[in-house]
Design a protein that fits this description.
The protein has 146 residues and is an alpha/beta fold. The protein contains seven helices and six strands, in the order E-H-E-H-E-H-E-H-E-H-E-H-H. It has one domain: Response regulator (Rossmann fold, 3-Layer(aba) Sandwich). Strand 1, helix 1 and strand 2 form a beta-alpha-beta unit.
Length: 146
Amino acid sequence: MTTVPIRIILADDHKIVRESWKMLLENNAGFRIIADCNNGQDAIDLAIRLVPDIMLVDINMEPVNGFHVAETLTKTAPAIKIIGLSVNNLPKFAAHMFRLGAKGFLTKTSTLDEINHGILEVYKGNSYICDEVRNRMTPEEKKILD
């Protein structure tokens, strides 16, 4: 029985980050990177055109940031599951992404095992926030996961 790989778009304004994540994720036979881009507007355009299963979206991009990408795609292409990605591990960033419709949040220092696990959880329809951020959340902030 052949399983269809999870189709992923990467959006990050740092080329080295995109290339690193692409290389790491493509080592998992269950994932296929179908596109990558360096800004939020391209992320929105590619997502609408290619309709990936998952989008990994950096929060800090210009001129269109990851928050705007999440908000826009949640309204225009709700089947796409968005995972916020940041160097910042403050729970408020994850909470804001979730309020805008994201289903997951990872930091750029998350382990490869956690990244793979987070992508799979979100793909299955669950919410996921990496341990680094989850462990810093207040009980009130954790309510966004319910």
